[in-house]
Amino acid sequence: MAEIKSTLEKVLERAAAMGQASRQEMQAEERVKDGMRLAADYLQGKTVDFSGALGDAADAEPVKRGIVQVFLRNIALPRGDENERAEMAMQGLLEMAMGSGDLVSVFKDMKGILDHYLQHKKEIRQQVEEAFRQQMEQALAQQTGQAGLGMKVDPSLHPKFQEEWTRVKTDLDEQYNKVLMQHKELVAQRFSVAL
Fold first, then answer.
1. What is the largest CA-CA distance in the chain?
2. Among 175, 136, 183, 187, which Cα is nearest to 159's?
3. Other CB atoms within 10 A of residue 21 CB
4. pTM of model > 0.70
5. DSSP string spanning 80-148?
6. 27 near 2, Cβ under 8 Å?
7. Would the pLDDT of 32 be above 60?
8. Per-residue pLDDT, 12
9. What is the C-alpha radius of gyration for the chain, rounded to an integer number of angstroms?
10. CA of residue 95 relative to chain centroid, distance
């Protein structure tokens, strides 16, 4: 019976310890969310005082983690034709680091990667469109027996084009995301934050 009681006591002690830890973890998680809100405000164009938010040494680490996580998440390959959100996130990280020289060069590289991605994506799409246009014109010529009927063919409307473009773009995105992730890891290390 003494064994059962001691096992029960151990379980109760562990449960009590877990309750305390989870309370502390919940407070830390709230501070992470506070940091995330600060970063979101900054990305929306609001004025944010990072040094004031990070001034309290006890709460600074979770707040910093939240800010850095949001900024790094927003440094991503652009879906459209602009890097504006990524550039704002980089600027926010620079403000947090107070213009640290090592980050300036990393962000310069990241901006170059994002700009090169946009240009590369545009060029590859044009190449895929041109290849499909030629294939469609050849197929049309074979069907009608006449070449160059003066019809404009839009290859982007063809379902096979969409399949091919999705495949090619996925490959391109993987390549650029890999390089971008390496740079993001450097930034995360600089702020002592895990990705």
1. 97
2. 136
3. 10
4. yes
5. SS--HHHHHHHHHHHHHTTS-HHHHHHHHHHHHHHHHHHHHHHHHHHHHHHHHHHHHHHHHHHHHS-S-
6. no
7. yes
8. 64
9. 26
10. 19
